[in-house]
């Protein structure tokens, strides 16, 4: 699996941004990973799904569920490429029709793999876990494309969920630095980040 090519592609489509940002967790960051961009690039979306499959395929699960909303296209792609049933968790509970929180066909006791684009604290994965477990599903593993290494893995471990990461933020930054594709300002931000880790 050519992770270097994937990292360059993510940078080229603007999925790796530099500046002043506030993460969903409330933490400030000079680096923002905007993986929503990949939905407009089918070849990169496929590469992301394949990188995840390469990382997770030896784990045991019956279903996949993407954390809404960014991971839904990734989960769909992985489901189609590997013929694995997918379910969907609604962020907001339906107030009409079946009023279901989890959409799709599943049986209580089945094992579901949670798919997410990025992990910082793990909050989004744990919210999804809560709803899936409430529906009777078992969660043993979660897969992310990029681990920011800011406490998320420990938070998942505390709930007996094993985190699998394709890449870490540090690895992404080191690769971009080595490939000499960054601007001078971006180089400076990356060197600052690497000096503190």
What keyword list fits this structure?
7 helices; alpha/beta; two-stranded antiparallel sheet; globular; single chain; 197 residues; 39% helix; Rossmann fold
* Quantity of strands, as a count: 8
What does the largest sheet look like?
Answer: 6 strands, mixed
CATH architecture label name:
3-Layer(aba) Sandwich
Supply the helix-strand structural class: alpha/beta
Strand line-up across the major sheet? 5-4-3-6-7-8
Shape: globular
Distance between the termini: 26 Å
Order of helices and strands: HEEHEHEEEHEHEHH
Helical fraction equals: 25-40%
> CATH first level: which class?
Alpha Beta
Q: What fraction of residues sit in β-strands?
A: 15-25%
The poorly predicted ranges are none
Number of domains: 1
Instruction: Tell me the number of helical segments per DSSP (H or I, 4 or more residues long).
Output: 7
Mean pLDDT: 93
Structural description of this entry:
The structure is a single chain. The protein is α/β, with parallel strands linked by helices. The chain has a single domain (3-187), classed as Rossmann fold. Helix content is 39%, strand content 23%. The chain has helices at residues 3-12, 42-56, 71-82, 123-134, 152-157, 169-178, 184-195, and strands spanning 16-22, 28-33, 63-66, 85-89, 102-103, 112-119, 141-147, 162-168. The strands form two sheets. Strands 5-4-3-6-7-8 form a six-stranded mixed β-sheet, sandwiched between helices. A two-stranded antiparallel sheet has the order 1-2. The two termini are 26 Å apart.
């Amino acid at each position: 699996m050519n992770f270097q090519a994937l990292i360059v592609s993510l940078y080229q489509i603007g999925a790796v941004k530099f500046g002043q940002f506030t993460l969903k967790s409330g933490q400030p960051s000079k680096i923002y990973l905007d993986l929503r961009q990949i939905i407009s690039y089918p070849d990169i979306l496929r590469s992301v799904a394949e990188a995840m499959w390469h990382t997770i395929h030896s784990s045991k699960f019956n279903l996949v569920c993407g954390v809404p909303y960014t991971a839904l296209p990734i989960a769909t792609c992985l489901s189609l490429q590997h013929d694995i049933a997918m379910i969907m968790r609604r962020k907001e509970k339906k107030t009409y029709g079946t009023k279901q929180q989890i959409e799709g066909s599943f049986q209580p006791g089945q094992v579901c793999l949670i798919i997410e684009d990025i992990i910082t604290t793990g909050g989004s994965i744990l919210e999804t876990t809560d709803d899936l477990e409430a529906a009777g599903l078992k969660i043993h593993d979660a897969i992310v494309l990029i681990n920011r290494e800011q406490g998320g893995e420990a938070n998942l471990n505390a709930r007996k969920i094993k985190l699998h990461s394709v890449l870490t933020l540090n690895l992404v930054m080191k690769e971009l630095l080595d490939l000499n594709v960054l601007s001078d300002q971006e180089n400076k931000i990356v060197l600052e980040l690497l000096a503190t880790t």
